[in-house]
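Hello,

I think I submitted the zinc ion job twice by accident. Can you confirm which output corresponds to this input? Input:
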Amino acid sequence: MPFGHDMAYSLASAVELVNTSPATGGEDGLADLSDLQAFVESQQVSGVDVLTTRDLGQVRMVREAFHRVFTAPDQPTAVRLLNALLSETRITPRLTEHDGHPLHVHYFAPGSTLAEHLAADYGVALAHLLVEGEWERLRTCSAPDCDRVFVDESRNRSRVYCDSRTCGNRMHVAAYRARRRA
Ligand SMILES: [Zn+2]
Ligand SMILES: [Zn+2]
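Support: Only one job matched these inputs. Its output is below.
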């Protein structure tokens, strides 16, 4: 994909965020503040203050908004939903170097809440993906009991399963058994 490291990182984090949603088939991965803290640490979200239950509620709402973008039925709908999300987010581009990462751009405004921070950085990454004409790369897993989302980075846009350890594997096994039965 023609995306820089930074954007790929934001897209991967957006996927992680959306996949904590119970709407993707599992338990709520942001059930409480310790889950939110763990998410912030695993995704190395910078400059985060002490988190509150208010942050938790706001981040869950942003998460659902991103989920709707990933599952939009067509590109115009994805554009409309993403614009709505971005319009609620203060954005201030700023070059930065921190924690050993090379020079990159942060989009969240100074003083942003965590939800605004995620909406800005992930929202801009998704906006660039749409601008590149890559909307179709936003996918939902095709495994029967899984609705996790992913960004298809394969060259021919052929990926249909999420990258959870189980989905790809078990579907290969099912296909293998089906072939043997045939
Ligand atoms: Zn950074
Ligand atoms: Zn899956």
